[in-house]
């Protein structure tokens, strides 16, 4: 429940004029990725990940950039090139990718569920029950610094303390 701060960090680089959404996930049916793919969104949509539905979705959604699985610094770079992290899964219990995204300065747009409510605060992301597009628009208005601050609450030190306290 912690992230490597040498890989997942925010920078002050200009992300450019094109608004970019990124989703990092296993590419499978149960992740509800179609909610991301079907967004009527004028900017870039990047899907990072691999899984059993990758080729089908790649053919079905030509408006989404499917880049496959990434690790290490390259994964961190994909977070840093985006403006908002989109997490369409409705059933996650703990989405570590949301913490990685926030550590890179991305506010999160996600569906409201118990796992997401544990991670996302009103300053680090937007949780909705139905209107996913509204979550993304709201997330754009959030400050990068607040997302980073929330991610710091999930450091390796905090995760270790939680583990030890469970004994």
Q: What attributes characterize this protein structure?
A:
167 residues; alpha/beta; six-stranded parallel sheet; 8 helices; 16% strand
Structure description:
- The protein has 8 helices and 6 strands.
- The chain is of the alpha/beta class and 167 residues long.
- The protein has a 6-stranded parallel beta sheet, with helices on both faces.
- α4 packs across α7.
- Number of DSSP-assigned strands: 6
Q: What is the terminal-to-terminal distance? A: 17 Å
The sequence of SSEs as H and E is EHEHEHEHEHEHHH
Shape descriptor: globular
List low-confidence stretches: none
Q: Hey, roughly how much beta strand do the residues contain? A: 15-25%
Mean pLDDT: 91
């Amino acid at each position: 429940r912690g992230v490597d701060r040498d890989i997942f960090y925010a920078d002050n680089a200009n992300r450019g004029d094109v608004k970019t959404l990124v989703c990092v996930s296993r590419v499978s049916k149960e992740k509800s990725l179609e909610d991301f793919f079907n967004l009527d969104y004028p900017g870039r949509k990047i899907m990072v990940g691999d899984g059993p539905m990758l080729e089908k979705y790649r053919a079905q959604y030509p408006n989404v950039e499917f880049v496959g699985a990434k690790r290490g610094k390259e994964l961190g770079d994909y977070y840093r090139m985006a403006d908002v992290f989109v997490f369409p899964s409705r059933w996650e219990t703990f989405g570590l990718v949301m913490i990685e995204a926030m550590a890179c300065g991305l506010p999160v747009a996600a569906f409201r569920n118990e796992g997401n409510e544990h991670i996302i605060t009103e300053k680090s992301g937007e949780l909705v029950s139905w209107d996913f597009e509204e979550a993304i628009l709201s997330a754009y208005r959030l400050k990068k610094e607040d997302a980073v601050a929330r991610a710091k609450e999930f450091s390796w030190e905090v995760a270790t303390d939680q583990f030890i306290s469970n004994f």
